[in-house]
Specification:
The protein is of the alpha/beta class and 228 residues long. The protein is built from seven helices and eight strands; from the N terminus they run H-E-E-H-E-E-H-E-H-E-E-E-H-H-H. Helix 5 packs across helix 7.
Length: 228
Amino acid sequence: MEIDAAALKPKGFFQQVETDKFSLRLCMSGGTMDTTYVRKAIEIAEKYGDSVIHLTSRQQIEIPSISDVNVEAVLKMIADENISTFIGGPRVRTVLACLGASVCKFGQIETSGLAREIHKLYFGQELPAKLKIAITGCQNNCVRVEANDIGIRGVGHGYLFYFGGCFGREIRIGKTILPVLKDKKDVLKVIEAAVAFFKTNANKGERLGKLLERVGIEPFKKHLESVL
């Protein structure tokens, strides 16, 4: 049976150099993953891969070397276990987070719970282009929030936003255009407003930073300020 690689990509499978092999990316939320989930990843790697697991820079488990003849079996396995997989393309990606104030002595804000809440609201939502969100608890900035479309850093037990960052083929540092917010409810309002502005105004394939270069910071800033 011929495998449709493009159709498999939204399900977390990415074709490797060998056209008959795929890597499967499993998605975590809030920067953590339950140990039973990890055990299941190990089981998949040992049964259908080559017993190797890769940890990606966006806090996901990647299982390489899954043969095309085993893809259907793996799909059934992850469906039966209700395992969430990475979703690529022009969508909201996995929300990154450090462990934050609940674990780290330097943390100024709680991060994992906030990241899971945002992930639940927006992960996989279709947009004109990919949108990456990251949350870090303090100035150590372990997840490089300014290199994401939307970044949040803990500052004095408040939330400092960065907008329009990008890291990859093109590197762009996100801009801080709002004061430090103290209320998590305001953080969620800003994210909702930012995603809505991006969805309404961005061209196909245009990242948030490029959009802000094209339309200017002021319309975006005024839109965010209107919800606070």
